[in-house]
Amino acid sequence: MAIPLMLVSPNSGFLHNFKGLGKRLLGFYPGLHYDLRNASIEVEDEIYANASFFSALIWAVVFSAFVRFATYIRDMEPRIQLLLPFLSFFMMFVFFFFFHLAYPKIVARNVSDKIDRDLTYAARDMLVQVSSGIPLYNVFKNIADSDYGHVSAQFRIVRDDIRGGMPVLKALENLSLRTQSKFLKKTCWQLITSLRSGANLTTTLHGIVALLVDYQFTLIKSYNAELNFVVLIYLLVSAVLPTIGVTVLVIFSLFGILGITPELFASIVIVAFVLQMILIGYVKAKRPNM
Hints:
This protein is an all-alpha fold. The protein has three domains: 13-112, no CATH class; 113-214; 215-286. Helices cover 78% and strands 0% of the residues. It is built from ten helices and no strands.
Protein backbone atom coordinates (compact mmCIF):
# COMPACT_ATOMS: atom_id res chain seq x y z
CA MET A 1 0.00 0.00 0.00
CA ALA A 2 1.45 3.35 -1.07
CA ILE A 3 1.70 5.94 1.71
CA PRO A 4 1.07 9.52 0.52
CA LEU A 5 4.08 11.87 0.79
CA MET A 6 6.28 9.10 2.23
CA LEU A 7 9.57 9.31 0.33
CA VAL A 8 10.98 6.10 1.85
CA SER A 9 9.01 2.93 1.16
CA PRO A 10 8.36 0.72 4.22
CA ASN A 11 9.45 -2.20 2.03
CA SER A 12 13.00 -0.85 1.71
CA GLY A 13 15.51 -3.42 2.87
CA PHE A 14 17.87 -1.06 4.69
CA LEU A 15 15.17 -0.20 7.26
CA HIS A 16 15.63 -3.62 8.89
CA ASN A 17 19.08 -2.50 10.00
CA PHE A 18 17.55 0.16 12.26
CA LYS A 19 15.01 -1.87 14.26
CA GLY A 20 16.51 -0.56 17.49
CA LEU A 21 15.80 2.98 16.34
CA GLY A 22 12.27 1.94 15.36
CA LYS A 23 11.53 0.58 18.84
CA ARG A 24 12.60 3.88 20.38
CA LEU A 25 10.52 5.85 17.89
CA LEU A 26 7.43 3.83 18.85
CA GLY A 27 7.57 5.56 22.23
CA PHE A 28 6.23 8.68 20.49
CA TYR A 29 3.27 6.73 19.04
CA PRO A 30 2.66 3.50 21.01
CA GLY A 31 -0.61 2.62 19.25
CA LEU A 32 0.99 2.31 15.81
CA HIS A 33 0.83 -1.50 15.81
CA TYR A 34 -2.97 -1.53 16.19
CA ASP A 35 -3.42 1.29 13.67
CA LEU A 36 -1.42 -0.62 11.05
CA ARG A 37 -3.47 -3.75 11.70
CA ASN A 38 -6.79 -1.90 11.49
CA ALA A 39 -5.71 -0.15 8.28
CA SER A 40 -4.64 -3.51 6.75
CA ILE A 41 -1.09 -2.22 6.20
CA GLU A 42 1.07 -5.33 6.45
CA VAL A 43 4.26 -3.74 7.76
CA GLU A 44 6.02 -4.18 11.09
CA ASP A 45 5.53 -1.21 13.36
CA GLU A 46 9.30 -0.73 13.90
CA ILE A 47 9.91 -0.72 10.12
CA TYR A 48 7.07 1.74 9.52
CA ALA A 49 8.41 4.04 12.25
CA ASN A 50 11.86 3.95 10.60
CA ALA A 51 10.34 4.76 7.20
CA SER A 52 8.46 7.68 8.76
CA PHE A 53 11.65 8.95 10.40
CA PHE A 54 13.80 8.87 7.25
CA SER A 55 11.03 10.27 5.05
CA ALA A 56 10.49 13.18 7.45
CA LEU A 57 14.26 13.71 7.55
CA ILE A 58 14.43 14.00 3.75
CA TRP A 59 11.49 16.42 3.67
CA ALA A 60 13.10 18.55 6.38
CA VAL A 61 16.50 18.65 4.65
CA VAL A 62 15.00 19.58 1.28
CA PHE A 63 12.77 22.30 2.72
CA SER A 64 15.50 23.79 4.93
CA ALA A 65 17.87 23.84 1.94
CA PHE A 66 15.24 25.72 -0.04
CA VAL A 67 14.77 28.22 2.79
CA ARG A 68 18.54 28.65 3.08
CA PHE A 69 18.78 29.34 -0.64
CA ALA A 70 15.86 31.80 -0.48
CA THR A 71 17.41 33.73 2.43
CA TYR A 72 20.75 33.84 0.62
CA ILE A 73 19.16 35.19 -2.58
CA ARG A 74 17.26 37.83 -0.58
CA ASP A 75 20.56 38.79 1.07
CA MET A 76 19.16 38.68 4.60
CA GLU A 77 21.17 39.07 7.77
CA PRO A 78 23.56 36.17 8.52
CA ARG A 79 21.71 35.45 11.76
CA ILE A 80 18.40 35.06 9.90
CA GLN A 81 20.08 32.96 7.22
CA LEU A 82 21.02 30.46 9.93
CA LEU A 83 17.91 30.70 12.11
CA LEU A 84 15.19 30.30 9.46
CA PRO A 85 16.60 27.08 7.89
CA PHE A 86 17.01 25.57 11.36
CA LEU A 87 13.44 26.42 12.36
CA SER A 88 12.07 25.19 9.04
CA PHE A 89 14.02 21.93 9.41
CA PHE A 90 12.60 21.31 12.88
CA MET A 91 9.02 22.22 11.96
CA MET A 92 8.94 20.17 8.74
CA PHE A 93 10.54 17.14 10.42
CA VAL A 94 8.03 17.14 13.27
CA PHE A 95 5.10 17.70 10.93
CA PHE A 96 5.93 14.93 8.44
CA PHE A 97 7.09 12.48 11.11
CA PHE A 98 3.82 12.62 13.03
CA PHE A 99 1.80 12.85 9.81
CA HIS A 100 3.29 9.56 8.62
CA LEU A 101 2.70 7.95 12.02
CA ALA A 102 -0.92 9.16 12.14
CA TYR A 103 -1.73 8.12 8.56
CA PRO A 104 -2.65 4.47 9.42
CA LYS A 105 -5.09 5.74 12.05
CA ILE A 106 -6.67 8.07 9.47
CA VAL A 107 -7.03 5.16 7.03
CA ALA A 108 -8.47 2.92 9.77
CA ARG A 109 -11.01 5.61 10.66
CA ASN A 110 -12.07 5.91 7.02
CA VAL A 111 -12.43 2.13 6.80
CA SER A 112 -14.50 2.20 10.00
CA ASP A 113 -16.83 4.82 8.51
CA LYS A 114 -17.27 2.74 5.34
CA ILE A 115 -18.02 -0.35 7.44
CA ASP A 116 -20.66 1.56 9.44
CA ARG A 117 -22.22 2.69 6.16
CA ASP A 118 -22.38 -0.76 4.56
CA LEU A 119 -23.22 -2.65 7.75
CA THR A 120 -26.85 -1.50 7.67
CA TYR A 121 -27.48 -3.20 4.33
CA ALA A 122 -25.47 -6.27 5.31
CA ALA A 123 -27.42 -6.61 8.58
CA ARG A 124 -30.73 -6.39 6.71
CA ASP A 125 -29.51 -9.09 4.32
CA MET A 126 -28.52 -11.26 7.31
CA LEU A 127 -31.93 -10.69 8.88
CA VAL A 128 -33.74 -11.83 5.74
CA GLN A 129 -31.56 -14.91 5.40
CA VAL A 130 -31.81 -15.93 9.07
CA SER A 131 -35.58 -15.39 8.98
CA SER A 132 -35.71 -17.73 5.98
CA GLY A 133 -34.00 -20.50 7.97
CA ILE A 134 -30.57 -20.38 6.30
CA PRO A 135 -27.77 -21.72 8.56
CA LEU A 136 -25.54 -19.09 10.14
CA TYR A 137 -22.37 -20.25 8.35
CA ASN A 138 -24.13 -19.97 4.99
CA VAL A 139 -25.32 -16.50 5.98
CA PHE A 140 -21.73 -15.45 6.68
CA LYS A 141 -20.63 -17.05 3.40
CA ASN A 142 -23.31 -15.18 1.43
CA ILE A 143 -22.36 -11.87 3.06
CA ALA A 144 -18.69 -12.55 2.23
CA ASP A 145 -19.56 -13.26 -1.41
CA SER A 146 -21.79 -10.17 -1.69
CA ASP A 147 -20.72 -6.64 -2.55
CA TYR A 148 -20.80 -4.91 0.83
CA GLY A 149 -17.32 -3.40 0.61
CA HIS A 150 -15.21 -3.73 3.74
CA VAL A 151 -17.99 -5.62 5.55
CA SER A 152 -17.76 -8.41 2.98
CA ALA A 153 -13.97 -8.37 3.30
CA GLN A 154 -14.21 -8.85 7.07
CA PHE A 155 -16.73 -11.68 6.71
CA ARG A 156 -14.47 -13.40 4.17
CA ILE A 157 -11.95 -13.72 6.99
CA VAL A 158 -14.69 -15.10 9.26
CA ARG A 159 -15.76 -17.56 6.54
CA ASP A 160 -12.19 -18.75 6.02
CA ASP A 161 -11.63 -19.11 9.78
CA ILE A 162 -14.76 -21.23 10.21
CA ARG A 163 -13.90 -23.26 7.13
CA GLY A 164 -10.47 -23.91 8.65
CA GLY A 165 -12.04 -25.46 11.77
CA MET A 166 -12.36 -22.45 14.06
CA PRO A 167 -15.61 -22.30 16.12
CA VAL A 168 -18.15 -19.66 15.05
CA LEU A 169 -17.98 -17.88 18.43
CA LYS A 170 -14.19 -17.64 18.25
CA ALA A 171 -14.31 -16.31 14.67
CA LEU A 172 -16.80 -13.62 15.70
CA GLU A 173 -14.67 -12.71 18.72
CA ASN A 174 -11.63 -12.28 16.48
CA LEU A 175 -13.67 -10.07 14.16
CA SER A 176 -14.81 -7.87 17.05
CA LEU A 177 -11.21 -7.47 18.22
CA ARG A 178 -9.87 -6.89 14.72
CA THR A 179 -12.25 -4.20 13.49
CA GLN A 180 -12.28 -0.57 14.58
CA SER A 181 -15.96 -0.10 13.74
CA LYS A 182 -17.88 0.21 16.99
CA PHE A 183 -21.12 -0.93 15.35
CA LEU A 184 -19.52 -4.03 13.86
CA LYS A 185 -18.11 -4.75 17.33
CA LYS A 186 -21.61 -4.41 18.81
CA THR A 187 -23.05 -6.63 16.09
CA CYS A 188 -20.49 -9.35 16.76
CA TRP A 189 -20.94 -9.29 20.52
CA GLN A 190 -24.72 -9.33 20.26
CA LEU A 191 -24.53 -12.34 17.93
CA ILE A 192 -22.10 -14.06 20.32
CA THR A 193 -24.41 -13.40 23.29
CA SER A 194 -27.42 -14.73 21.39
CA LEU A 195 -25.58 -17.87 20.30
CA ARG A 196 -24.32 -18.58 23.81
CA SER A 197 -27.70 -18.01 25.44
CA GLY A 198 -29.71 -19.73 22.71
CA ALA A 199 -31.77 -16.61 22.01
CA ASN A 200 -33.60 -15.98 18.75
CA LEU A 201 -31.15 -14.55 16.18
CA THR A 202 -33.99 -12.91 14.25
CA THR A 203 -34.88 -10.74 17.25
CA THR A 204 -31.21 -9.86 17.74
CA LEU A 205 -30.76 -8.84 14.10
CA HIS A 206 -33.97 -6.78 14.26
CA GLY A 207 -32.44 -4.83 17.14
CA ILE A 208 -29.13 -4.41 15.29
CA VAL A 209 -30.84 -3.07 12.17
CA ALA A 210 -32.96 -0.65 14.23
CA LEU A 211 -29.81 0.58 16.01
CA LEU A 212 -27.98 1.18 12.73
CA VAL A 213 -30.92 3.00 11.15
CA ASP A 214 -31.30 5.25 14.22
CA TYR A 215 -27.57 6.01 14.05
CA GLN A 216 -27.85 7.08 10.40
CA PHE A 217 -30.83 9.33 11.18
CA THR A 218 -28.83 10.88 14.02
CA LEU A 219 -25.95 11.57 11.64
CA ILE A 220 -28.28 13.25 9.16
CA LYS A 221 -29.88 15.44 11.84
CA SER A 222 -26.48 16.44 13.24
CA TYR A 223 -25.20 17.26 9.75
CA ASN A 224 -28.33 19.31 8.98
CA ALA A 225 -27.92 21.36 12.18
CA GLU A 226 -24.23 21.95 11.49
CA LEU A 227 -24.91 22.81 7.86
CA ASN A 228 -27.15 25.74 8.82
CA PHE A 229 -24.28 27.38 10.70
CA VAL A 230 -21.79 26.66 7.90
CA VAL A 231 -24.13 28.23 5.32
CA LEU A 232 -24.29 31.38 7.45
CA ILE A 233 -20.49 31.55 7.64
CA TYR A 234 -20.28 30.92 3.89
CA LEU A 235 -22.60 33.84 3.14
CA LEU A 236 -20.58 36.11 5.41
CA VAL A 237 -17.29 35.11 3.80
CA SER A 238 -18.47 35.09 0.19
CA ALA A 239 -20.77 38.14 0.11
CA VAL A 240 -21.09 40.23 3.26
CA LEU A 241 -17.49 40.68 4.42
CA PRO A 242 -15.93 41.37 0.98
CA THR A 243 -18.69 43.85 0.09
CA ILE A 244 -18.56 45.69 3.40
CA GLY A 245 -14.76 45.58 3.41
CA VAL A 246 -14.47 47.16 -0.03
CA THR A 247 -17.10 49.77 0.85
CA VAL A 248 -15.27 50.75 4.05
CA LEU A 249 -11.96 50.98 2.18
CA VAL A 250 -13.54 53.23 -0.47
CA ILE A 251 -14.94 55.50 2.25
CA PHE A 252 -11.54 55.64 4.00
CA SER A 253 -9.86 56.50 0.71
CA LEU A 254 -12.03 59.64 0.43
CA PHE A 255 -10.51 60.88 3.68
CA GLY A 256 -7.02 59.86 2.67
CA ILE A 257 -6.75 57.35 5.52
CA LEU A 258 -6.42 54.11 3.59
CA GLY A 259 -6.63 53.84 -0.16
CA ILE A 260 -7.83 50.81 -2.09
CA THR A 261 -5.38 49.60 -4.72
CA PRO A 262 -5.76 46.94 -7.41
CA GLU A 263 -3.41 44.69 -5.43
CA LEU A 264 -5.50 45.05 -2.27
CA PHE A 265 -8.73 44.40 -4.16
CA ALA A 266 -7.23 41.29 -5.79
CA SER A 267 -6.07 40.11 -2.36
CA ILE A 268 -9.59 40.44 -0.97
CA VAL A 269 -11.00 38.41 -3.87
CA ILE A 270 -8.33 35.70 -3.51
CA VAL A 271 -8.77 35.42 0.28
CA ALA A 272 -12.55 35.20 -0.11
CA PHE A 273 -12.16 32.52 -2.78
CA VAL A 274 -9.76 30.45 -0.65
CA LEU A 275 -12.07 30.66 2.38
CA GLN A 276 -15.02 29.56 0.25
CA MET A 277 -13.05 26.54 -1.01
CA ILE A 278 -12.14 25.64 2.59
CA LEU A 279 -15.78 25.81 3.67
CA ILE A 280 -16.92 23.76 0.67
CA GLY A 281 -14.27 21.14 1.44
CA TYR A 282 -15.35 21.09 5.08
CA VAL A 283 -19.00 20.55 4.13
CA LYS A 284 -18.00 17.73 1.76
CA ALA A 285 -15.81 16.09 4.39
CA LYS A 286 -18.51 16.22 7.07
CA ARG A 287 -21.27 14.88 4.83
CA PRO A 288 -22.47 11.46 6.02
CA ASN A 289 -21.86 8.66 3.54
CA MET A 290 -25.06 6.66 3.42
